[in-house]
Design a protein that fits this description.
It is a single chain. This protein is α+β, with helices and mostly antiparallel strands and about 450 residues long. The chain folds into two domains: about 80 residues; about 350 residues, membrane protein fhac: a member of the omp85/tpsb transporter family (Porin), CATH 2.40.160. It contains eight helices and 19 strands. The chain has a 17-stranded antiparallel beta sheet that branches. Strands 13-14 form a two-stranded antiparallel ribbon. About 30% of the residues are buried.
Amino acid sequence: MCKLLKYILSFITLLLTVNITAQEQTNDTIPHEILSTKLDSILTHLPDSTKKTYTQEEISAINNILDLLSTGIDIESEKKKKIKKEKNFKFSVLGGPGYSPDYGFTIGLATLATFRTDKTDATLPRSIIPLNVNLAFGKPMSVTVLSKPLIYFKHDKIRLQGVFEFKHSNENYYGVGYRQNHNAERGKDITGYYADLVQINPVLLFRIKKSPSYMGIVGDFFYENIKSPGTLLLNDPCYLMQGGTSEGLRDINVGLGMTYSFDTRDVAANAYKGVLFEARALYYSKYLGGEYDFGSITLDYRQYYKVSKEHRRVLAWNILVKTKIGDEIPFSQHAIVGGPFNLRGYYLGQYRDETAVTTELEWRHMWDIATDTKFKQLLHRLGYAAWVGCGFMGENIIKYDAVLPNLGGGLRVEVQKRMNFRVDAGYSFADKHALFYFNMTEAF
């Protein structure tokens, strides 16, 4: 037993010494000669080394170990590989042709940049900056650029997020209220108009001690230059109240407010578990440089439940409430539904009123397939999503006159770990049509 223990201690000493030697080398591998010299030094200092006579088999076995170590231990290379795999800045891009009932034939480009603001903090979530660019070849040509970034600072004590959008495009306005929205005849000379739009909506959050709660400030700058208004817009009370004419209208609104966020999501861009609750209140004022005085309140609740511990299958749901307060609400600032992030399947802005409430329940399923071949590796990065939802619109959260159900599904492609590109098709029961969307990150 003592003899066996001595051999074990001798072998451990050998490995530890070789490991130290490997870390001291500047090259990627350890020369066999250095290991042999080190072995001679070790053998002369082992317990009973002056009395012990090593057999040829023992020496051969130790030499075999040295051969394996001299070719197999590559500590610096392994470090380099890890650094390469875990590089800080990652960039993905996807794009292609498409078709939109709003814009006609389009070419879309979706990019996603992720990084850590502090490379040394492995616990810091990866910041995300998605960017969607859409070119539509109608008459005139339309350009849309949209980004909804989320950036983490100072061990996640500070967050910067928001919405940044630029549009030079054809738009449609259907009026205010469900009956007007639903019955309006869609057409370039009726609901159509051309607009230059810029929205800068930053949100700065500060963590409350070590809790998952954040408080912060939110600002909103909204500029819109309307040209070639259709007949519906020319006869709209809100548009006329704002001073709109047949020549168009320039509109600037500036708001400032407070926001509260409770966030336990594991990954914001594609959560498997956790809860997000946000409450936001803004006041738009002439004193801030805008043209109208009105208020805005938004409540956003999201929850995620991972159905299987072994598989990437998630059930997610969202309740969103948006309401506007005041007698001077600009027509472009009413609560709206639709688009790529909310109640997919409805035209963005077709349905608008003073208050909008939407609910969505979504199943997210990625295919967990063995990755022993390149084809299986590709399949492993694919998945799908399916959802049902409903919207309610009216004068307030209690008095509503619109019920807008929808459902849909789509393809998911994992372009980065836990970061998906999505292709969605949503169906509108109220209008009986389907719309398609291409975006980075999940809808909510």
